[in-house]
Design goal:
The structure is a single chain. By secondary structure, the protein is α/β, with parallel strands linked by helices. The protein has a domain of 225 residues: TIM Barrel. The strands form two sheets. The chain has an eight-stranded parallel beta sheet with strand order 1-9-8-6-5-4-3-2. A three-stranded antiparallel beta sheet has the order 7-11-10, with no helix packed on it. Helix 7 links the parallel strand 5 and strand 6.
Length: 348
Amino acid sequence: MTWIAELGLSLPLIQAPMAGTSTPELAAAVSNAGALGSIAVGATDAAGAQAMIARTRSLTARPFNVNLFVHATPMPDAAREAAWLADLAPLFARYGATPPAGLRTIYQSFADDDAMLRLLVAQAPPIVSFHFGLPDAARIAALKGAGCRLLATATSLAEAEACKVAGIDAVVAQGWEAGGHRGVFDPDAPDDRLGTFALTRLLVVRSGLPVIAAGGIMDGAGIRAALDLGAVAAQLGTAFVRCPETGADTAYRAAMAGPAAAHTVMTRTISGRPARCLTNRFTAWGADARRDVPAYPIAYDAGKALNAAAKAAGEPGFGAQWAGQGAPLSRALPAADLVARLAEEAGL
């Protein structure tokens, strides 16, 4: 029996867990279509996660994935954060607003969140996945003891090897092309920026784990290529952004449907951690290498406040419009229809 069949899936396809964009409605529609839907709870607390899991379960009886952020606990730096707010002040002023008086750590890492661990052990979702790193052995043991299968993002062989040692069941090979936050364990370490297919093949041959290819895959041909390289499945995120079930706002959808989709950039400006976004006013402003962005997710507090101020003034160009390099190939289809189209294109 294949790894995908063991999960009860009929298709080797995972909808990426995009915090702020994926929803229980999207995850359920994907899962009901035979693939694996995902919800992202890294940007909420245990109560928020409980509500999202309950909503997903009310819409599907099939397996789904619950994704967590396992970033290093940020170290507040008052001087650095004050300088960042001062740097942003002219942008806030342009839209008739003032920066926050200070910046907060807007959500906890799973590494520190005991309430989230208790919830997940109690709820025992079929699949739990990690991004930005790995939790400690006790947390992994608790989740495995509850019957959860565990996935983790890796952007290099070294990260994949760490996943295997930790007892992770399968690894998501996230290539440089991928949209959203880069899953590197240490964002300040050198990054070899391996592309999806080079990384996928490397991990298939060397990691000793089942590999899920992720990054820049938008259609059935991409899924088939990943499977031919030995991946057990492909994970697609950007391909689902324009589905009506997502939380993407009107400006995000319009950008994805137009010429802006052809231009993405890896930036720390929005959140404090490398992430691939459609180029916009904020990424252009942040391209100045002299800017010293505070730690993630502290910097995201300022980014979200600036986006809210700009949107209130009618300017959508400061949003976190995460997208991979394949964004021009996105399609505005209901999620179930997109899954069916992808399966047909891939010959599944």
